[in-house]
Design brief:
The complex is a heterodimer of chains A (about 900) and B (about 120). Chain A is of the alpha+beta class. Chain A folds into 4 domains: about 55 residues; about 210 residues, no CATH class; about 300 residues, no CATH class; about 200 residues, no CATH class. Chain A is built from 28 helices and 27 strands. In chain A, helix 5 crosses helix 6, helix 13 packs parallel to helix 24 and helix 24 packs parallel to helix 27. Chain B has about 120 residues and is α+β, with helices and mostly antiparallel strands. Chain B has a domain of about 80 residues: Arc Repressor Mutant, subunit A (Orthogonal Bundle), CATH 1.10.10.10. In chain B, about 50% of the residues lie in helices and about 15% in strands. In chain B, strands 1-2 form a two-stranded antiparallel sheet. In chain B, strand 1 and strand 2 form a beta hairpin. Classes of the chains: A alpha+beta (about 900), B alpha+beta (about 120). The interface between A and B is medium-sized, with 21 and 23 residues.
């Protein structure tokens, strides 16, 4: 009896089993037991137990200890097996596998592309080390009840910030607006984009210097070149201390070379920096401008102990305090504030003094599109893998019958799902590397796959994990719960309950792709609408040359004669701005009957008499300026928008007074003509009221090419004339129609990207549908056979098989249309000149998607319907 | 590379396996060792040596019968292989040859007592 009461110490046994090789367990436990019971009899139970422990500890020998966790080594084998079975399954159903892997790969590729695009946008300006402290000074003002925001600031403000508010700022840097200048050295003349900036700029923006130092702009006659500019100008020679001329008038010495700024920085186009002081020396008038003339930019770096908000509220009245003598200006209430560098790119739009975002909307838009496309691909994957898994109910039954436990089945389905996900990810990476150049082109960026970015891999990892788990959860958790006996007997009807979520997913898929397509169509419609807008002048064959250097001075008459003599030119005229932009805008206008509270602000442009003929003005009333008619030198030509402001029945002959005329001596002007609105700024917004007058301050030569001459001939002839008369300046010209087309670049880019993504979205959805349709057709083989035998026609079978899908797609169209309408309508609101959303967009889209659906489904449906019923009914 | 040299403990265990014949399993061998030599040894140490000898090819094993005192568990029965026998004999012959070269003991061999 004693023997039965005393048993070996359980804990020791447990420990032994923990470390002992599994295959040794039986014999060792047996031996130890034998020893134990003998000890119990010959010695004492206590001693037996002690000895048992002693024996157990003596089994801690290399040979007896298991190599690793035996259950995990077993699991390793099992996982290997799962992957093997999964791989075989993929190969067995090549069509499905292709759809599955391909669809998911495309979806992931789109998501990755969009992801790196979004990342690139968010990294904007972060190249500069102190970007968190840098800001640009902006100015709000309120006129006629509307608050406008402007970046042009007066010279005196820069001095004021430096002297009175200097403890808020580390740096205050005044700068000219980024513009094109001619750099010449030796015989070379190259037009380059540059910026004149105070000497603190290079340090503030932490330029990466290759030669020289940040103090390179201390001497007014110096220049810092970007590396690419240095190579362009001096080749492989050492550029340091070389001499250059800017715009043929400013002498400078190269004092440094900096690494080119990357494409996602504010100053990326800037190829050189020169000292602001040089600009001031060359343009003496700058110093004498008080607080009222806004023409420069101010960048600041705030000091460590302050914030943008605090600094902004300190400086907000810096202009207002200094203009108290000017009642009109005070009434505009100029308020200045800081706009942090982090927000320059993505939050650059202002409406009524409030930041309304800007590019960030596009980032969001594409972010959402990316997520949607990815979602579509995941839905496909889930749908197909759940659909396929039903076929495997039998396999589950057999596996269970031969001893698989549920956990193993769950592992099996998950590992198969991960196999597909990993394959797709590899495919996606290949797709992305292959299409990145194209995508960069489209998005006008220089992005790379962030191979070395930990977040990229972390994000991908979690995404793969999520996709794998979610898509395999149905087969893994549901199928594995089957009772093997019932499954094998065939009494479990799989899939009835599973079709409902599947249908919901299909609806979701087509809702998303439908909405994307409607959105894309309307974006294109809007671009087309704006492109077809009457512009009020004739863009074709209009050449523009900016007079960037003093070499042009006094050459106008000679040029004009010489150009007209070539016969390639019908008219030439000068103007203060190009026809494709508004360069000047002034206030201080008054006329009889004007509401005194109304602040009249007109876009202004000085022209020479031939201008109207050159650009092709279309007169509504009155006449053009005529050469040699004295009264025209104090005449105004208005556009319709300006004429509408004047509130005269007939504005011709009426007098407008202007208290700060620019480029002319006259102060009261007679309206001599009204022209159709010229679209000079954005083709999406209303045309600014504009006045044209004869005056100096002319910066552009406009040339009308003879329509009888081919453009290339004409340009060649014009070039000869310019080279001869103004040899110091490179012949650098622009075409009005090309410049105008640039105004659509942003929208066109969005349109192109959106259309690519929506096409991909619909392709992915159709891939999924194709897979589902073929699956359904396969599942219903018997049913179709029987239907055929009892007399159904191919058409009837086709409609039976297609009906379900058509209904789903129709439902999604009904959801997608109002959804798309809502968002697209919101998007359109930002444009003053916008297209109407008509209902036929939605009709066409629905019809189009329906057609595609039918095409996709019919292939399988007809194939199934044509099948010989004898064959389909013979099996089993 | 297989180790063919026999250690002293290994040699004894190998011999004991031969002595025990059908009943040679780890626990019995350890018991036998203790009773024959008077030195105590753990089953684990014995088992480890048996395992080593098996790896060297001197022993082979198979699972034997289960008995009640073992809680119904089977035992692993070890038997000497031909190679094992040859190694034992070589070891003995080698020592004999040494004994014979040792004049003081020549003729009065007392093999077991040297231990």
């Amino acid at each position: 009896m004693k023997k039965h009461k005393t048993i070996p110490p359980a804990l020791a046994q447990k420990i032994l089993l923990r470390f002992l090789r599994v295959d040794l367990a039986e014999e060792v436990l047996g031996d130890l037991d034998e020893k134990f019971y003998i000890n119990v009899q010959t010695k004492s139970p206590f001693k037996a137990k002690i000895n048992y422990w002693y024996q157990v500890l003596h089994y801690l020998r290399p040979f007896a200890i298991r190599k690793s966790n035996p259950s995990s080594s077993n699991a390793m084998d099992m996982f290997q097996n799962y992957f093997k079975i999964g791989w075989r399954n993929l190969l067995k159903n090549k069509g499905y596998s292709f759809i599955n892997v391909g669809g998911l790969a495309i979806g992931m590729a789109v998501a990755i592309l969009i992801g790196i695009w979004v990342y690139d946008e968010l990294q904007f300006n972060k190249y500069h080390k102190n970007y968190k402290n840098i800001a640009r000074v902006l100015r709000h003002g309120t006129a006629n009840g509307e608050t406008f925001t402007n970046s042009s600031l007066p010279y005196a403000l820069g001095e004021e910030l430096k002297s009175k508010y200097d403890n808020s700022f580390e740096h205050v840097v005044m700068a000219w607006h980024v513009g094109d200048h001619i750099l010449s050295t030796g015989g070379k003349k190259i037009s380059m984009t540059g910026e004149f900036m105070e000497s603190g700029g290079p340090e503030m923006f932490s330029l990466k210097m290759i030669h020289g130092s940040w103090s390179g702009l201390d001497d007014p006659h110096s220049i810092l070149l970007s590396q690419s500019a240095a190579t362009l100008l001096f080749g492989n020679d050492n550029p340091m201390d070389k001499l250059l001329k800017i715009d043929s008038k400013m002498d400078v010495k190269v004092t440094g070379v900096y690494e080119d700024l990357p494409h996602n920085t504010h100053f990326h186009g800037v190829k050189f920096f020169s000292p602001w002081d040089l600009m001031v020396i060359s343009n003496d008038w700058i110093k004498y401008q008080g607080f009222k003339n806004n023409f420069l930019a101010i960048y600041v770096a705030i000091s460590e102990h302050t914030t943008f908000e605090k600094a902004s509220s300190r400086i907000k009245d810096a202009i207002l305090n200094n203009i108290q003598d000017d009642k009109v200006y005070v009434s505009i209430n100029p308020q200045i504030f800081l706009h942090p560098m982090e927000k320059w790119h993505l939050f650059a739009e202002w409406k009524n003094g409030i930041n309304t975002g800007g590019l960030i909307d596009v980032v969001w838009l594409f972010g959402i599109i990316g997520v949607c496309v990815l979602l579509l691909a995941c839905i496909n994957f889930m749908n197909l893998s759940t659909a396929r898994s039903e076929k495997r109910a039998k396999e589950v039954g057999i596996r269970k019958a031969i001893g698989s436990i549920r956990r193993q089945l769950i592992h099996q389905f998950f590992s198969e799902s991960f196999l597909v996900v990993l394959l797709s990810f590899a495919g996606a990476l290949i797709l992305v590397s292959a299409s990145l150049t194209w995508f960069n082109d489209l998005a006008s960026k220089q992005m790379e796959i962030p191979w070395n970015n930990g977040y990229f891999w972390l994000g991908s990892f979690f995404f793969l994990l999520l996709t794998g788990i979610v898509s395999a959860s149905y087969p893994a958790l549901y199928l594995s719960s089957f009772n093997p006996v019932q499954v094998l007997k065939g009494s479990v009807r799989v899939g009835r309950s599973a079709t409902v979520p599947r249908k919901i997913l299909v609806v979701l898929q087509f809702t998303v792709s439908g909405a994307l397509i409607i959105g894309t169509i309307i974006v294109y419609q809007q671009i087309l609408f704006a492109q077809n807008r009457p512009v009020g002048y004739s863009r074709d064959g209009l050449l523009m040359i900016q007079m960037t250097s003093p070499d042009f001075h006094g050459k106008y008459d000679v040029l004009r004669t010489a150009l007209l003599n070539t016969g390639a030119v019908t008219e030439i005229a000068e103007s203060s701005g190009p026809p494709t932009d508004v360069w000047n805008s002034n206030g201080g206008f008054d006329w009889q009957g004007k509401d005194p509270a109304f602040i009249a602000e007109f876009a202004t442009m000085t022209v020479t008499p031939g201008y109207g003929k050159t650009v092709g003005w279309q007169f509504v009333k009155g006449k053009d300026f005529v050469e040699g008619v004295d009264s025209d030198s104090s005449g105004f030509v208005l556009n319709e928008a300006a004429a509408a402001l004047l509130s005269f029945e007939n504005p011709i002959g009426e007098v407008i007074r202007w208290n700060s005329p620019y480029g002319t001596n006259a102060s009261s002007f007679t309206v001599i003509g009204v022209i159709k609105d010229m679209v000079m700024k954005s083709p999406y917004s209303e045309v600014q009221p504009t006045v044209f007058y004869l005056g100096d301050n002319r910066n552009w030569i406009n040339i009308r090419i003879n329509p009888q001459t081919s453009v290339s001939d004409a340009v060649a002839k014009i070039e000869i004339v310019f080279k001869k008369l103004i040899p110091a300046v490179p012949f650098d010209y622009k075409f009005a129609d090309e410049e105008y087309a640039l105004k659509f670049a942003a929208e066109k880019r969005i349109g192109k990207l959106a259309s690519v993504f929506s096409v991909l979205a619909i392709v992915i959805s159709c891939l999924g549908l194709f897979g589902l349709a073929s699956f359904v057709a396969e599942q219903r083989t018997k049913e179709i056979g029987i239907r055929k035998v009892v007399g159904a026609s191919v058409y009837q079978l086709w409609s039976v098989l297609s009906k379900d899908f058509v209904i789903l797609v129709l439902i999604s169209s009904f959801i997608a249309s109002p959804l798309a309408y809502y968002y697209v309508n919101n998007w359109l609101q930002q444009y003053q000149y916008r297209t109407e959303i008509s209902w036929w967009f939605f009709g066409i889209t629905t019809l189009g998607i329906l057609m595609i659906t039918l095409l996709t489904v019919s292939f399988q449906a007809i194939k199934a319907a044509m099948m010989n019923p004898v064959k389909s009914l013979r099996s089993e | 590379m297989k180790e063919t040299r026999l250690g002293e403990f290994e040699e004894v265990i190998l011999l004991l396996v031969g002595i025990l014949g059908e009943g040679a399993y780890a626990f019995k061998i350890a018991e036998e060792f203790e009773s024959q030599t008077g030195r105590s040894v753990s089953i684990g140490a014995t088992h480890s040596t048996l395992d080593r000898l098996e790896n060297k090819g001197f022993l082979k094993s198979e699972m034997g019968k289960a008995t009640a005192e073992r809680g119904g568990r089977r035992k692993r029965i070890f038997t000497i292989t031909a190679l094992g026998k040859r190694v034992l004999k070589e070891s003995k012959d080698f020592k004999m040859a040494l004994w014979e070269q040792y004049p003081a003991f020549a003729g009065k061999l007392n093999y077991g007592g040297v231990m």
